[in-house]
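Section 5.1 Outputs to date
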Amino acid sequence: MSLLQEKLNLYKKKSHPDESSKITPEHFGAEKLMWGTVPLWRFKSIYNIKEDIKRLSLNYSHLPEFFFKSIGFQDAVSLKDVVFVDLETTSLSIGAGSYAFLFGFGALQDEVLTVEQYFMHEYSEEPAILRAILPLFQEKIAVTYNGFSFDIPLLKNRYRINRIAGFPLDKKHIDLLYPSRVVFKSLFENCALITLESRVLGIDRIDDIPSWLIPEIYFSYQKNGEIDRMRNVIAHHKQDIISMAILMLFLINLYHNLEHRRFDAMSNVAFAHIARWLYRRDLELFLDVVNFMGESVLSDRMLFKMYSCAMKRIGRHDEIMKFWRKDASVYSKEELAKYYEHIAKDYREALAHCAQAMSFLNAGLFAEGVKFSHPEAVTFYRERFEKRIQRLLRKIDPHLSLKSDTVD
């Protein structure tokens, strides 16, 4: 062999390697199924959620309509009718160049969650996978986490690009991100699923693969046949599906306790956020939650206004007036001043409540013995009351000096 031929051989691509040495998903635990002549690579596992139910004190025997109506369904949905859906993809985009390479599904029956994951070993296998999983979307209600913005639109694109008809484009699905935000928004640094796992569900992942690294791992598998990290991707993906199922049971349980006024069985940390959400949907339940929380929670300006408006909207005017007088805070003094100025037309009584509020503000207090948490709030409310006092003085006697010192 010439020296030139030896050098050319360095660049020659090896042809037709021994099939027995070729890396396939079987090397990291997949079973091989056939869809016609195309192989499907499936990971199947069973997860018993009994311990999670016991640990979190969950009871999901009753599925509250209240939960499902909150996410756009008219009636309660049986857990047997839902399928938990999650994808791992080649990018964080839903554009035409983004593929799902791992399709995950979870079915919950009693206390057993069956998880199936379909892996795209070759890009040519995508149409077969899409056809195989199509009946799930036609027969079941999909449950996702942020699927409204990502998983479902990406799937619609893949079915469209592959010209596979039958995907239910307008069918409603349950995106757990939205009811989770109702409860946990502002409580934690974000509402990512992994955050709720550790902070709410008590799930701590060990040696987990970060989501941002997963596309690179798949490309490395495609190029180099790397399988060690791919095992971790499969485990990460399976945990996402398990966590979605447990989170849905947690939320159903929470809404069940709300529906039956079992507030003592709920975590106090989430009450303020739940109350704000209830204000727009169920005033009676909103008031019951706030009353259970105790009047001290009404130091939250937003909740105080909602509480006052709710009481007036359902006709409990006498009760809210008694509450304002008893409360004796800057917020209540402002409400009383507005009532006596605009409704009762008793300007001197309104002025008296303004004077009491100003005495609090001049001492930097929200109420007797309670300081404002933010000093700028004192300035804000002092300016509001000063304007109201000047207006009331003019209403009492248009000839009174605007610099009257009768109210200090």
